[in-house]
Amino acid sequence: MAEELRKSVFNEGLITHLSDAFSHEMSSFDKKVFHELVFQQDWEDLALKERMRRITLSMHEVLPADYEEALHILYKVAPTVGGLQGTIFPDYVELYGLNAWEVSIKALAFFTPFSTSEFAVRPFLIQDQKRMLGQMIEWAGDENHHIRRLASEGSRPRLPWGQSVPALKQDPKQTLPILEQLKCDESLYVRKSVANHLNDISYIEKDWMLDVMKSWYGKDSKTDWIVKHACRSLLKKGDPEALSLFGYGDDPGVNVTGLSLQPHVITIGDSINFSFELSVEKNMPLRIEYGIHYVKAKGNRTQKVFMLKNVQAKAGQTLTVTKKHAFKDLSTRKHYSGTHTLSVIVNGVVKAEADFVIE
């Protein structure tokens, strides 16, 4: 997947398009030099972000030396390049615009709707955190939902692929004014970012994050969606406080019976089928999950939890649950032989378990 993404995003087709577009805006643009700068001998070995940076560096060599003149050309070309390919434009601002703050801030806001400037804002946060957080509060009130999302996504404490901002990891509470502005946002795109931001915080300041979630929950349906999505990691871990926020709890009236698992011995690449019955004695919300205790390379085991369903169960109701789980090796998970365990988890509590073997 990563290999396919790398080759499909930053490739010769993009460079040809950029060459044509730059030539249209700049009569002296040298297509041959640009091509040679990008496709050096190590090109095939470069990772995704390394390819992005190579293109950015190459653009700098062939565009006007004056930063604002170069930006003027990039403004014309950026609307023709979208998705991950478009990250080369905010990357240009990240590399060459830190000493031209006001011009660069406008550029980051301009480029983000065509792709995303979330990675490029990180050095600005490091350089002047107070000023940049103030800018993000302003962005959070923008009419464009891409720019509002940039305020939340760019300031995430644990942004995937993003440069670390140590001060935000040490004190993630600083971003609360941004999140407060966005907690009822009309755009799902923005709300997902807010939820992911808060999920980041749950790894750093769990108790504080849960206090904020309690103060938000139950007042607006859009905010409630954020709260549930933000608490997903805590819910998977079976955190009692997070579970109780949504009415989930360990109740003796919840019973899991008839856990059946077939086959009991498999090889890597096979699947198992399992089923069980769940009955309740009273009306209650149920969060039904299952966990696999995977054997790791050194023989130890770690559990990964998977969601089955959320149900508002009625008194006396019995549910029959069936599921198939595959054990194919993935880029994100490699399987090893040994005894594994499947757990049925209801409202954060293990209710039944069964072993199986991968040979």
Structural notes for this entry:
The chain is of the alpha+beta class. The chain folds into 2 domains: 244 residues, Alpha Horseshoe (Serine Threonine Protein Phosphatase 5, Tetratricopeptide repeat); 105 residues, Immunoglobulin-like (Sandwich). The protein has 17 helices and 8 strands. The strands form 2 sheets. A 5-stranded mixed β-sheet has the order 2-8-7-4-5, with no helix packed on it. Strands 1-3-6 form a 3-stranded antiparallel β-sheet, with no helix packed on it. A hairpin with a 2-residue loop joins strand 7 and strand 8. It is globular. It starts with a helix and ends with a strand.
Structural class determined from secondary elements:
alpha+beta
Which geometry do the CA atoms define? Answer: globular
Proportion of residues in helical segments: 40-55%
Along the chain, the helix and strand elements come as HHHHHHHHHHHHHHHHHEEEEEEEE
Number of domains: 2
Q: How large a portion of the residues is in β-strands, by DSSP E?
A: 15-25%
What summary fits the major beta sheet? 5 strands, mixed
Spatial separation of the terminal alpha carbons: 27 Å
Low-confidence stretches: none
* CATH A-level architecture of the largest domain: Alpha Horseshoe
Q: Within the largest sheet, what's the order of strands?
A: 2-8-7-4-5
Q: For this structure, what is the CATH class of the largest domain?
A: Mainly Alpha
Number of strands: 8
Find the CATH superfamily of the largest domain. ARM repeat domains
Over all CA atoms, what is the radius of gyration? 25 Å
**Continuous helix count:** 17
**Overall pLDDT level:** 95
CATH topology of the largest domain: Serine Threonine Protein Phosphatase 5, Tetratricopeptide repeat
